[in-house]
Amino acid sequence: MYLRSYTDMLYGIYSGVGTYLKGLNWSTVGVSGEARMYNASYVNDPELNDYRDQMLAAYPDEDECDSSHREMLPYLLE
Known about the structure:
- This protein is an all-alpha fold.
- The chain has one domain (19-77).
- The protein has 4 helices and no strands.
- The longest helix is centred in the C-terminal third of the chain and has 16 residues, at 62-77.
- The radius of gyration is 13 Å and the shape is elongated.
- It starts with 18 loop residues before the first helix and ends with a helix.
Protein backbone atom coordinates (compact mmCIF):
# COMPACT_ATOMS: atom_id res chain seq x y z
CA MET A 1 0.00 0.00 0.00
CA TYR A 2 2.70 2.51 0.96
CA LEU A 3 4.80 1.71 -2.09
CA ARG A 4 1.78 2.18 -4.41
CA SER A 5 2.63 -1.06 -6.14
CA TYR A 6 -0.85 -2.57 -6.09
CA THR A 7 -2.54 -3.40 -9.40
CA ASP A 8 -6.09 -3.80 -8.12
CA MET A 9 -8.37 -1.53 -6.16
CA LEU A 10 -7.20 -0.79 -2.63
CA TYR A 11 -9.60 -0.03 0.19
CA GLY A 12 -8.73 0.76 3.75
CA ILE A 13 -9.62 3.05 6.58
CA TYR A 14 -6.64 4.87 7.95
CA SER A 15 -5.50 8.40 8.51
CA GLY A 16 -2.89 10.42 10.28
CA VAL A 17 -3.06 13.02 13.02
CA GLY A 18 -4.78 16.21 11.85
CA THR A 19 -6.14 14.55 8.74
CA TYR A 20 -8.79 17.15 7.90
CA LEU A 21 -6.51 20.10 8.58
CA LYS A 22 -3.56 18.76 6.58
CA GLY A 23 -5.74 17.35 3.80
CA LEU A 24 -3.91 14.05 4.02
CA ASN A 25 -6.52 12.09 2.09
CA TRP A 26 -6.94 14.55 -0.77
CA SER A 27 -3.68 16.44 -1.16
CA THR A 28 -0.35 15.54 -2.67
CA VAL A 29 1.44 18.32 -0.83
CA GLY A 30 2.61 16.47 2.24
CA VAL A 31 3.77 17.55 5.62
CA SER A 32 7.00 15.51 5.73
CA GLY A 33 5.66 13.47 2.83
CA GLU A 34 2.81 11.89 4.81
CA ALA A 35 0.05 13.11 2.47
CA ARG A 36 1.52 11.11 -0.39
CA MET A 37 1.13 8.00 1.75
CA TYR A 38 -2.50 8.62 2.76
CA ASN A 39 -3.69 10.01 -0.60
CA ALA A 40 -4.36 6.58 -2.10
CA SER A 41 -6.54 8.04 -4.89
CA TYR A 42 -3.73 10.30 -6.18
CA VAL A 43 -5.89 13.42 -5.83
CA ASN A 44 -3.99 16.51 -6.95
CA ASP A 45 -6.39 19.41 -7.32
CA PRO A 46 -5.11 23.01 -7.13
CA GLU A 47 -8.36 24.25 -5.55
CA LEU A 48 -8.19 21.62 -2.81
CA ASN A 49 -4.51 22.41 -2.25
CA ASP A 50 -5.48 26.08 -1.80
CA TYR A 51 -8.05 25.13 0.85
CA ARG A 52 -5.44 23.03 2.59
CA ASP A 53 -3.04 25.98 2.61
CA GLN A 54 -5.79 28.21 4.05
CA MET A 55 -6.46 25.77 6.88
CA LEU A 56 -2.77 25.40 7.71
CA ALA A 57 -2.30 29.18 7.66
CA ALA A 58 -5.30 29.64 9.99
CA TYR A 59 -4.06 27.11 12.54
CA PRO A 60 -4.37 27.18 15.57
CA ASP A 61 -7.64 29.11 15.07
CA GLU A 62 -9.92 26.07 14.89
CA ASP A 63 -13.00 28.14 14.07
CA GLU A 64 -11.31 29.55 10.97
CA CYS A 65 -9.99 26.09 9.99
CA ASP A 66 -13.47 24.63 10.38
CA SER A 67 -14.98 27.44 8.30
CA SER A 68 -12.59 26.75 5.41
CA HIS A 69 -13.21 23.03 5.73
CA ARG A 70 -17.01 23.48 5.57
CA GLU A 71 -16.63 25.74 2.53
CA MET A 72 -14.41 23.17 0.80
CA LEU A 73 -16.47 20.02 1.48
CA PRO A 74 -19.11 20.42 -1.25
CA TYR A 75 -16.35 20.80 -3.85
CA LEU A 76 -14.42 17.82 -2.47
CA LEU A 77 -17.47 15.57 -2.32
CA GLU A 78 -18.53 16.50 -5.85
